[in-house]
Design goal:
Blueprint (H helix, E strand, L loop, with lengths): L7 H28 L4 H10 L17 H12 L4 H21 L2 H12 L5 E4 L15 E5 L2 E12 L6 E7 L9 E7 L5 E5 L10 E12 L3 E2 L5 H37 L1 E2 L2 E2 L4 H29 L5 H25 L10 H9 L9 H12 L10
Parallel strand pairs: 1-4
Antiparallel strand pairs: 2-3, 3-7, 4-5, 5-8, 6-7, 9-10
Helix pairs in contact: 1-3, 3-6, 4-5, 4-6, 6-7, 6-8, 7-8, 8-9, 8-10
């Protein structure tokens, strides 16, 4: 493990986390993959172990550790080969909770952030809409202020933890005539009248519940506004940097796991009187895959270090997700090929991994959108300033 970024404390944390996942999570994964429902007890165990609080203030029960503890959590979650379980955990801990921490006031943090860190509440982040996935500025969900309340109307889709979560962090337009300058961020309780959710059936990420959510005159207190009114778009853009880096780290980690599995398989599988890791065509293809993975991994560590230092890394995090998710798809496709017919069988891990990995270039901003963001940053000298 690189000592450029990881200390002895980091490595001990990785070992204990790996043991925890093996003991507490892996025995349930196949059941959760079939049911599409992650049982509540595991959220509480994650909270008890402090895993949801790695990056959050001690004041609310967090551990306030550096970002490389989060990198380790993400990497190890990929090694248990359930993209859905991993997504449910990090969508709670780093999508919903990031907004609570950055924009929520003390009362909101006391009610929602502390309970999220302890594993007593599960959150989801609701930005994407049926009529515009990557087009955040084109959202149609509205929040109309009436006295001391806001009335929310609209719909969201592809929301991880969208059915089973206890609260929702929701982006809605408070000033529709202002376009992307009229978006605000709210926190809403699941049991608010007017909120309904439908579970979606997906190609992969089977263990996680992904929902389409409708808001029909859902009334919330004005105090549930997080941050300033009409500042939602810059908040969202700012936090996308973390989300994209998370998806980049996830990608290099699952590719690394696929390569480790394929290497072990190739060392045991024989054909024409020798193990298949002795065939030059396979050896050289494997070498190419390992090289692509390692380049992405080291770049992701560099971006994580800069983000941890407080640098604004929108360009680099966007590059991380763009390159790493493409690499992971390519590498996992090839690792499945190394296994031949067995790669196509559900009892071997590559089949699920190939399905789960395919969301990488789609979620959190499609690769096509990311290329345009990078082009704007480099060619047009666009400057995405941080909001907070």
């Amino acid at each position: 493990m690189s000592n450029l970024y990881f200390t002895e404390e980091h490595n001990l944390f990785r070992e204990s986390l790996r043991d925890f996942l093996k003991k507490e999570v892996v025995p349930h994964i196949d059941k959760w993959e079939k049911s599409g429902h992650i049982e509540r007890f595991i959220w509480k165990k994650f909270g008890d172990m402090g895993y949801f609080g790695l990056a959050y203030p001690e004041q609310y029960g967090g551990l306030d550790l550096d970002l490389f503890y989060t990198v380790i959590l993400l990497e190890e979650l990929q090694r248990i080969n359930s993209g859905g379980f991993a997504a449910a955990m990090w969508a709670h801990a780093y999508l919903a909770m990031t907004h609570l921490n950055k924009e929520g006031d003390h009362a909101i943090k006391e009610k929602y952030l502390a309970a999220s860190i302890s594993g007593d509440k599960i959150g989801c982040l609701c930005i994407t809409e049926p009529f515009g996935g990557s087009d955040v500025a084109g959202m149609r969900t509205t929040a109309v202020k009436k006295g001391d309340s806001y009335v929310i109307n609209g719909s969201k889709t592809f929301i991880t933890n969208g059915v089973l979560s206890d609260y929702l962090v929701v982006a809605a337009k408070t000033s529709p005539d202002l376009g992307n300058k009229g978006i605000s961020i709210f926190v809403m309780d699941r049991d608010t009248p007017g909120i309904s959710a439908t579970k979606l059936d997906k190609l992969g990420w089977k263990a996680s519940d992904t929902g389409e959510i409708a808001f029909d005159n859902a009334v919330i207190p004005a105090s549930n506004l997080m941050g300033e009114e009409n500042q939602g778009f810059p908040y969202i853009m700012q936090h996308f940097a973390l989300e994209r880096l998370i998806m980049g780290v996830n990608a290099h980690a699952r590719a690394e796991y696929a390569l480790e599995y394929a290497k072990q398989y190739m060392s045991e599988r024989t054909a024409f009187g020798r193990t298949i890791d002795k065939f030059q065509a396979l050896r050289h293809t494997y070498a190419d895959c390992e090289t692509q993975m390692e380049i992405c991994k080291q770049f992701n560590y560099y971006v994580a270090k800069r983000l941890d230092l407080g640098d604004y890394v929108v360009k680099e995090a966007t590059m991380s997700k763009l390159q790493s998710t493409k690499m992971a798809d390519d590498v996992i496709y090839q690792c499945l090929q190394f296994l031949g017919g067995y790669g196509y069988m559900e009892e071997f891990p590559l089949a699920r991994m190939a399905r789960d990995s395919r969301l990488g270039p789609i979620g959190g901003g499609t690769s096509e959108i990311l290329k345009e963001i990078i082009a704007k940053l480099i060619i047009d000298n666009k400057d995405y300033k941080p909001a907070t």
